[in-house]
Amino acid sequence: MVEPSSGTPQDDGRGNGAVRPRALLPSLMFTSLTVSVISTLGAPMVPTIAREQHVSLSAAQWVLTATLLAGAVAGPVLGRLGDGPRRRAAIQASLVGVLVGSVLAATAPGLPLLLAGRALQGMGMGLLPLTIAVARDHLPPKRMRSGIASLSITTSVGAGIGYPLTGVIAQHLDHRAGFWFAALLSAAALVVVRWVVPEGSSTPSRPLDLAGAALLCSGLALVLLAVSQGVAWGPVSGATLGCLGGGAVLLALWVFQARRTPHPLVDVRLMRNRAVLAANTTALLTGVGMFGVLSLVNLYTQVPAEAGYGFRLSLTATGLVLLPMSVGSVAANRLASALVSRFGPFRVLPLGPLVVTLDLVALALWRDHMAVLVLGTFLLGAGVGAAYAVMPLLIVRHVPASETGSATSFNQVLRTVGGSVGSAAISAIMLAFTPAGSLLPDDDAYTTALLATAAATFLGVVAAVALPPRRSTAPVTGSAVVTRGTTRGGRVTGPAASGTDRRNSGR
Question: What is the DSSP letter of 204?
Fold first, then answer.
């Protein structure tokens, strides 16, 4: 492993050529922050796009939902491509997709092409697991844990930074200028990746599971379509039930197929490890709360005067209200790292979703005060930052190095799916509380949506407490691919356990 004693390129010992040790972590963080800013770019501009495109807020909300859905699909594909010698190429291909999507969104004449551009931008949401895999392979041991924790919170930090930046650009120019800004950021990230990130890992190349990708993509799309359009179609209509049933069948077929193919898109056997299961379930439910707060604060602060509620803020002012989210994420990351060292990751994991739950309840009851909204975004960043700092540490400790990209990408998928479900559910609630002939929902829509997302996030607290193994487990550090191993008591056994380090992984 290369020590960061010099900024000059050094060979990494894995056949990947030169590594610039001092520049590697800052470059990975810049790339992750870039895609985080871009992925949340549509959220501040949902009310603006709704007005300019003459559509309802629930329809304009798909500017965010489309990105989240595309990210949920891109994550496992990029994660598998990144667990091998094509890692840098996978990162570059994703950034090219983001660049093309940014240009398309900036030039789109109508909502359909704008949504297509936003979907392409969603490809960038699959990059975080790849940056974590690079950090695991190439950072020195003494910097790896803090580096992975820092990378994991770029989702919330990037959102907090991106909102005021894009708000200023969109307000003083137009919403298209925000997407041109995204194009510049993604182009800069492409240059950084080409200059700094090593070419690949020492893991042999494996074929991409195209059948698994198709099943997962189709299943997620149908479920999210049913959630978002269920109110418009009717909760028990044939279309809603058909989408839900079809999606459930396709996802079940994906699990069945993944258990039997020699090179699955995501090794679902890893999900049987209780530590990994706890991290993934918490990721799913915390994602609902995170995007619930972001979407609802954006909408509530910008609602026009005729609604009779809200603050009627500009895009710039709304961005400033959301800026404390970044501060909360950074502060919680440092605190969570200290708590993990003292108490272990399993005891720290429930704290994040608990803070988000309390935040959502407070906003549901007292959102008429600006100070509460500002405090709410700070607490959101703190809760999400604490949770997201712990999750990848749990996964990295309990899966082989050869599965880092795939396993962490699935965790990212579940964060994104949670956000997609939250975003789609908010769209459905807004539509249900919108009077006929109006484009604006009643104030009760926000109370209902905040309490619904709070209930989902509280289930994340329950999962974080109940799912982790009752006894300490050993971290997996071997490079064997988990294909036939099983899990007992949270520890990988069988052929997959070769090279296992017996040190205590946490409490």
Answer: P
Strand (E) positions, 46-167? Answer: none
Per-position DSSP letters for 239-275, written without gaps between them:
HHHHHHHHHHHHHHHHHHHHHHSSS-SS-GGGGGSHH
Confidence of residue 6 (pLDDT cuts 50, 70, 90): very low
Query: Per residue in 306-329, pLDDT tens?
Result: 888 889 888 778 878 888 888 888
Q: What is the DSSP letter of 476?
A: P
* C-alpha pair distances (Å), 51 with each of 47, 416, 440: 6, 27, 11
DSSP code of residue 303: -
Give the whole-angstrom CA distance, residue 373 versus residue 366: 9
DSSP code at position 205: P
Alpha-carbon dihedral sign for residues 192, 195, 201, 207: positive
- Cα distance between residue 503 and residue 231, in whole Å: 51
Question: Distance (Å, rounded) from C-alpha 345 to C-alpha 505?
Answer: 9
Round to whole Å and give the CA distance between 461 and 286: 9
SS3 396: helix
Cα gap 441→57, rounded to integer Å: 8
Residue entry with tokens 């590697």? 24
Distances 488 to 125, 282, 500 between C-alpha atoms, Å: 32, 21, 14
Q: Which residues contact 251 (CB under 8 A, 6 or more apart)?
A: 215, 216, 219, 220, 223
Straight-line distance from the first to the last Cα atom of the chain, in angstroms, rounded to the nearest whole number: 27
Q: Which helix (H) or strand (E) holds 491?
A: strand 491-493
**Torsion 439-418-161-346 (CA) sign:** positive
pLDDT value for 363: 93
Partners of residue 486 on adjacent β-strands: 493
Q: What is the pLDDT of residues 393-422, one digit of tens each?
A: 888 888 877 676 677 777 877 887 787 788
In one letter, which amino acid is 385? G
70-86 mean pLDDT: 75
* Bridge partners for 19 per DSSP: 10
Chain CA centroid to CA 73, Å: 12
